[in-house]
């Protein structure tokens, strides 16, 4: 399961409802939720956030907040 899949599961989100509201296919929602090699596009993240009544920045931080910049050595 992907980070998006875990996020949606914790919020008890119905993926069929998300597909209907966003215009994304059920297959695409499932791929983004289950396939760790799938890549979430910014427009998909935005639409999914709006469909589940969440702020896009909240979803972005939940999914990618763990990322850090590479430190530069001087």
TrEMBL record:
Q: Which UniProt keywords apply?
A: DNA-binding
| Pfam families membership | HTH_26
Recall the GO molecular function terms of this protein's record.
DNA binding
- Recorded superkingdom: Bacteria
Taking every annotated instance into account, which residue ranges of this chain make up the domain HTH cro/C1-type? 4-60
Q: Does the keyword DNA-binding apply?
A: yes
Tell whether DNA-binding is among the UniProt keywords: yes
What InterPro entries does the record point to? Cro/C1-type_HTH, Lambda_DNA-bd_dom_sf
Q: What is this protein called?
A: DNA-binding protein
Source species, please? Sphingobacterium haloxyli
């Amino acid at each position: 399961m992907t980070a998006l899949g875990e996020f949606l599961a914790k919020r008890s989100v119905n993926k069929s409802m998300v597909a209907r509201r966003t215009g994304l296919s059920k297959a695409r929602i499932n791929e983004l939720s289950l396939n760790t090699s799938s890549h979430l596009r910014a427009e998909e993240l935005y639409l999914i956030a709006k469909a589940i009544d969440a702020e896009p920045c909240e979803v972005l931080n939940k999914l990618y907040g763990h990322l850090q910049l590479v430190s530069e050595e001087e």
